[in-house]
């Protein structure tokens, strides 16, 4: 048999297939990737550094949607706000990837470069080195939690007559549509207010 004109396997196809599996079921396996691509499991390993390597390819793929130009904005708080919004949108497109990516160390070069830029932004703004990573991690917690919230059902509280909750019912009725977006705005405003106060002291 002749070799196919288009190779069955390359890093791009492996990443795309792994992300499809994660979007569908929340995880992937190398045999599943191989089966979808019509290849042998061993052949997949010729192109990637095992499962961990695929996870990092997924991290890079999802993070590609984060606009790196946001970190060039001025002043620093406008840059951080724009980065947070772009970061949230990128991960909201693949919410089932969040638990997978957040439970493995970050090694992807392009993602590390983005963290480097965020750290530089805060240090240049005048934050103490000891304050920088807690701020970035707190912002990530907000962003990723909100990205997951966007994928949740609009109605997360099912009220029953067995447990009277009239004030909860009142509050839920008052919030209207866009609960996740409104909650994100509250969290982001609170985070930025804290960061500005921290810099001021």
Describe what this molecule looks like in 3D.
The protein is built from ten helices and no strands. The chain is mostly helical.
Features:
flat, single chain
Element layout with pairings:
Layout: H1 11-25, H2 30-37, H3 41-44, H4 50-63, H5 76-92, H6 98-102, H7 109-125, H8 129-151, H9 166-175, H10 179-200
Helix pairs in contact: 1-2, 1-4, 5-8, 5-10, 7-8, 8-10
Please outline what is shown here.
Residues 8-66 form the HTH tetR-type domain. The chain is an all-alpha fold.
Estimate the global geometry from the Cα principal axes.
flat
Query: Using only CA atoms, what is the Rg?
Result: 21 Å
Order of SSEs, N→C? Answer: HHHHHHHHHH
Sequence stretches where pLDDT stays below 50 over 5 or more residues: none
- Assess the beta-strand content as a share of residues: under 5%
N-to-C CA distance: 72 Å
Number of strands: 0
* Largest beta-sheet details: none
Assembly state here? single chain
């Amino acid at each position: 048999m002749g070799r196919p004109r288009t190779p069955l396997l390359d890093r791009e196809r492996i990443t795309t297939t792994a992300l499809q599996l994660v979007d569908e079921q929340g995880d992937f396996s190398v045999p599943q990737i191989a089966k979808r691509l019509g290849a042998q499991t061993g052949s997949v390993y010729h192109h990637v550094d095992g499962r961990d390597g695929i996870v990092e390819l997924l991290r890079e793929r999802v993070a590609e949607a984060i606009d790196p130009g946001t970190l060039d904005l001025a002043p620093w708080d406008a840059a951080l706000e724009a980065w947070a919004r772009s970061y949230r949108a990128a991960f909201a497109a693949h919410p089932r990837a969040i638990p997978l990516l957040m439970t493995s160390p970050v090694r992807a070069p392009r993602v590390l470069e983005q963290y480097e830029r965020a750290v530089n932004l805060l240090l240049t703004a005048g934050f103490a080195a000891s304050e920088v990573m807690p701020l970035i991690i707190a912002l990530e917690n907000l962003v990723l939690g909100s990205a997951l919230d966007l994928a949740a059902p609009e109605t997360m509280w099912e009220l029953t007559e067995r447990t009277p909750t009239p004030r909860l019912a009142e509050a839920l009725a008052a919030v209207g549509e866009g609960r996740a977006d409104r909650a994100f705005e509250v969290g982001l405003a609170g985070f930025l207010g804290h960061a500005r106060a921290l810099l001021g002291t």
